[in-house]
Design brief:
32% of the residues lie in helices and 19% in strands. The protein has 570 residues and is of the alpha/beta class. Strands 5-4-3-2-1-11-8-7-6 form a 9-stranded parallel β-sheet, with helices on one face. The protein starts with a strand and ends in a 16-residue tail after the last strand. The protein binds beta-D-galactopyranose.
């Protein structure tokens, strides 16, 4: 069975609407709804007062209607009474501004009061609903992502660093604090990377992102352990994007089912974006050891998108929602869920599309989503195998700082260039099953990553690397020449290009942009050169395999791919 449905926030509506909702859900083929994501104030109206009667009735109605529940813990949106009592649990920005109540996601995961309050409401929910028939899945929190720089975070950061580096000497070495007089002589001197005068220390910045990810993971794990009172699986919804301080590769093994939210960023380019998101979700599932690569699309926009560039929200063209859903399902999704079921009358997202819009069910959106509900009811989840993998590394994404060269965009272009079904995997995934592995701009490469790439090629794999790869280690320290033996060339210097500056390629109707490495081949064959004679594409035999190295960025990187291997379809 495919899960089909979305976020249901009935606390916005009088009870008579709930009965109509369940009836409409049945008409639309909905079989799973996420309930309670933002319901904390309704569930716990005051510090020592709980109200579960309404949720009992909602779950009862849904259960009687044959609709399963993905029950959320409401901790992404603490209620106003909490904020008023515990101002120290509100997040502080890097500039030192303490945020106040008024939106959502306003919390500090390291604040003791917040952690206690989260454990309490989660415990109450678990005690009441752990064995409820309608509950099929637990949804912890929502889209972890708030970064805070407060004093609670400073203390927790120090202890995280002490675990990682042992002592201050280890920290000073890892952070290269010999430069700019940054040597620490006392743990109390170590702070989150708050607003400062000029450039920050890259190792400090990167470690803070890792720390924030781990602190949030601890928050998730504390709720998961409480919810283990139930047999239903536990997950949280991953949100994609460079700003997200979550190391998904590390988190994936802690969720029982990888679940992602994927919203179109523009009306055009729709399906390629969906395919990339789906292939990433499957990659995380594989990283977690789920060989079937199955995952859940927890949220998607049912009928309209906000164009990131213009800010305009407009309906999808007829058929686009269906095409997106089928793209997810063909790439291993076990369900397609939308935000949200019924469009809010008021509140921050009152114009966000919903399956039941303000105008009611007699509308194109409801008709299209209902038809889709009927269609997916005839399908079963598929297990997808891919011959090719694209390495997408969150640590590199966080550490990479070249203006004008967008890591995410480069990976997306390679994803399109490889074509077909491609596992988009973190570097920790075993590579030996793939005929082709493409690792664009793998800027940060720790020793384990170096070993994995070499073992893969030695064993007969075909690897494509690009410019700006293997430039730094785990601590953002330069590692010159680290890939030279593998690519069969010496990278003599890196030349970031200016905006608009291009490198014409000999014999190709294409130009390099953004960056070019100057290479001295030492064993590799030159397959392409720039018009000025500089090598831009190398091929090198290494062990039983082969490595290609593309020294510049192409709008369409297909010329970098070997023609005889790696195409999907093993
Ligand atoms: C998601 C979020 C939902 C809703 C949606 C709107 O990121 O989880 O609660 O806000 O965005 O697109």
């Amino acid at each position: 069975m495919i899960h089909f449905g979305g976020d249901y926030n009935p606390e916005q509506w009088p009870e008579k609407v709930w009965t109509a909702d369940v009836e409409l859900m049945r008409r639309a083929g909905v079989n799973l709804v996420t309930v309670g994501v933002f319901a904390w104030a309704r569930l716990q109206p005051a510090p020592d007062e709980f109200d579960f009667g309404w949720l009992d009735r909602v779950l009862g109605l849904l259960g009687d209607g044959g609709i399963g529940v993905c029950l959320a813990t409401p901790t992404a949106s603490p209620p106003p009474w909490f904020t008023r009592r515990h101002p120290d649990a509100m997040p502080v920005t890097a500039d030192g501004v303490r945020l106040t109540h008024g939106s959502r996601d306003t919390y500090c995961v390291n604040a003791p009061a917040y952690r206690t309050a989260c454990a309490r409401i989660t415990g109450e929910l678990a005690a009441r609903y752990a064995r409820h028939d309608a509950v099929r899945l637990w949804h912890v929190h929502n889209e972890y992502g708030t970064t805070c720089y407060c004093d609670h975070c400073a203390a927790a950061f120090r202890s995280w660093l002490a675990d990682r580096y042992g002592d201050l000497a280890g920290l000073n070495d890892a952070w290269s604090t010999g430069f700019w007089s940054q040597r620490y002589g006392d743990w109390a001197e170590v702070l989150p990377p708050r607003a400062t005068q000029y450039l920050g220390n890259p190792a400090h910045l990167l470690d803070y992102r890792r720390f924030v990810s781990d602190a949030m993971l601890a928050h998730y794990l504390s709720q998961r352990s409480i919810l283990r009172a139930s047999d239903a699986p536990v997950t949280t919804n991953f949100v994609l994007g460079g700003w997200v301080p979550v190391d998904h590769a590390r988190w994936a093994s802690e969720v029982d089912l990888v679940a992602i939210d994927d919203y179109p960023s523009s009306v055009g380019g729709h399906l390629a974006e969906r395919a990339f998101a789906a292939d990433r979700a499957r990659g995380w599932a594989r990283a977690a050891g789920h060989d079937d690569g199955r995952w859940l699309l927890m949220e998607h926009a049912p009928g309209a998108v906000r164009d990131a560039a213009s800010g305009v929200v407009r309906p999808l063209d007829p058929g686009q929602a269906r095409a997106a859903a089928l793209t997810y399902l063909d790439r291993g999704a076990v369900g397609v869920m939308y935000f949200q079921w019924r469009q809010s009358r008021g509140g921050a997202e009152q114009w966000h599309p919903a399956i039941v819009p303000h105008q009611g069910p007699d509308t194109p959106i409801f008709a299209e989503i209902s038809a889709l509900g009927a269609e997916v009811a005839r399908r079963e989840p598929v297990t997808v195998t891919a011959a090719a993998a694209l390495i997408h590394d969150e640590q590199t994404m966080w550490a990479w700082q070249a203006p004008g060269l967008d890591y995410e965009a480069i990976c997306r272009r390679w994803h399109v260039a490889i074509g077909g079904i491609v596992d988009v995997v973190p570097p920790s995934v075993p590579l030996d099953g793939y005929r082709l592995v493409v690792a664009p701009v793998l800027y940060l490469l720790p020793a384990a990553g170096h070993r994995a790439l070499r073992d893969y090629v030695r064993g007969g794999g075909t690897l494509v690397l690009t410019f700006a790869s293997g430039l730094v280690d785990d601590c953002c320290r330069a590692t010159p020449g680290a890939l030279d033996d593998l690519i069969g060339a010496r990278v003599v210097r890196h030349v970031p290009l200016l905006p608009g500056e291009t490198v014409p390629i000999d014999g190709l109707d294409a130009v390099g942009r953004g960056w070019i490495d100057d290479l001295e081949p030492a064993g590799a064959t030159v397959l392409l050169r720039a018009a000025d004679g500089r090598p831009v594409l190398l091929e090198h035999r290494y062990g039983a395999g082969v490595v290609r190295y593309l020294a510049t960025d192409l709008d369409d990187p297909r010329p970098g791919l070997p023609t005889d291997s790696g195409r999907p379809g093993r």
